[in-house]
Specification:
With about 425 residues, this protein is mainly α. Helices cover about 75% and strands about 5% of the residues. A two-stranded antiparallel sheet has the order 1-2.
Length: about 425
């Protein structure tokens, strides 16, 4: 099998990946349908209201992150995913029923978005860390990248299908398709060979949340990555908001053209994920280069004079953003103790996605006050500043030493960079998963 797809040779991961692909297609249909419902059916193209829905959907990731991480490290991850995926299916079903019966109101969408966020807050660290239980450590980076490839392959299909369904029969049926898509991942979880899973050590008792916070506090390498993904996630990756505003307000397009933009961006995102799957090791250098490329691509997209030029530059935007995310995700998962992985990844996802409650309303207000193009440009400037700041931090050799070291991965040679103030010290080797 090609090195790019080597993790698919593992039965449990192959089963999970296939179910996740089907579920992700439905998820993208649900996202596009929700945005279109708010913009065209429930408001008069209000970017502020759309930003509020987005904020409510991601707010629980911030509020519940410590508890979500503790739950992930304490209970079997497969059981957690059964519960969270079922809860997400229910929220999608309720949304579709409200639309079909003609009683849906904006506050319904606010409430359901928040409930969906609660389920997602627990689901995210569970999904992220469950990968390490399905594949050996040397395949973890590849599996993380293939997960991203699945997500973005679905992004190629989901938005376009959603646009066609909305144009033909309305938003309600899109939510019903999303509800059915969760069945695929639930079946995959049910049919797994549990004897072939590699459960991480589980924690119990009080103090686990504080222990996770102390662990991250003492890891400046992890903190640096989290700062970079926070800036990208909060200000740069509000695509469901920014592309909707560009399609409707700048280029005056309908549901089909809006859905197409998501599929076009997914071409670049899928390419970025597959390229990441070919790389043996995640690198900080690649992460910083990709962030710089993202800033350039979004600058051109925001100033594009036509719909098709805007669409074309969404391709490199997607490629660079996914390169950042797969590199950052792999570096964090490979660099932490397996017993701490759930809590660290919950904090990582809270910082990345949980910044949306801050960024989305701000970007929505910017769209109403200054126009849709500025909703993208604010992300361009924020990411550019973060790259410059990170570079300046790393070159301060008198205060910070940056080294690539081996972290004791039984000869697999997976590198981890270590930042230490004052003198350089050898890191404590990480335990094998």
């Amino acid at each position: 099998m090609s090195p790019t797809f080597r993790s698919l040779s593992i039965y449990n991961y192959r089963l999970y990946w296939t179910g996740a692909l089907v579920s992700n297609i439905g998820t993208w249909m649900g996202r596009v349908s929700q945005d279109w419902l708010v913009l065209t059916d429930l408001t008069h193209h209000s970017s502020t209201d759309l930003g509020t829905v987005t904020a409510l959907q991601f707010l629980p990731l911030v509020l519940l992150a410590p508890w979500a991480g503790a739950i992930t490290d304490r209970f079997p991850k497969r059981r957690i995913l059964f519960i969270t995926q079922s809860a997400l299916a229910v929220t999608s079903l309720l949304t579709g029923l409200l639309i079909i019966t003609g009683v849906v109101q904006l506050w319904h969408i606010f409430a359901l978005a928040f409930l969906q966020g609660v389920a997602t807050a627990v689901d995210n660290p569970g999904r992220q860390t469950f990968v390490s239980e399905m594949v050996p450590r040397e395949s973890l980076s590849n599996a993380v990248s293939l997960n991203s490839a699945s997500f973005n392959a679905a992004r190629l299909i989901g938005p376009g299908v959603a646009g066609l369904v909305i144009a033909a029969v309305g938003t309600g049926p899109s939510f019903f398709v999303n509800t059915l898509s969760f069945v695929a991942v639930l079946l995959a979880l049910w049919r797994m060979r549990t004897s072939e899973l590699r459960p991480a050590p589980r924690t119990a008792g009080r103090g686990s949340i504080r222990e996770g916070a102390r662990y991250v506090k003492n890891r400046p390498d992890i903190i640096l990555i989290m700062v970079l993904v926070f800036m990208l996630g909060t200000f740069g990756m509000n695509f469901q908001l920014t592309t909707a505003l560009m399609a409707t307000q700048v280029f005056h397009k309908g549901a089909g053209e809006y859905g197409l933009l998501g599929s076009i961006m997914a071409i670049g995102s899928l390419a970025g994920a597959l390229l990441a799957a070919r790389r043996a090791h995640p690198r900080l250098r690649i992460l910083l280069i990709a962030l710089s490329g993202f800033a350039i691509a979004t600058l051109v997209a925001a100033t594009a004079p036509s719909y098709w030029m805007f669409a074309i530059f969404l391709v490199p935007t997607g490629l660079f953003s996914i390169t950042v995310l797969t590199s950052a995700n792999s570096m964090v998962q490979l660099g932490v103790d397996p017993a701490m992985r759930g809590r660290v990844m919950a904090l990582y996802m809270a910082i990345f996605m949980g910044g949306t409650p801050i960024g989305a309303p701000v970007i929505g207000w910017i769209g109403d006050a200054f126009g849709a193009r500025w909703t993208i440009l604010i992300g361009t400037f924020a990411v550019a500043v973060s790259v410059v700041g990170a570079a300046a931090y790393l070159v301060r050799s008198e205060n910070v030493h940056v080294r690539l070291v081996r972290d004791g991965l039984a000869g697999h040679g997976l590198p981890r960079f270590v930042l230490t103030k004052g003198q350089v010290t050898e890191p404590v080797p990480q335990r094998a998963a």
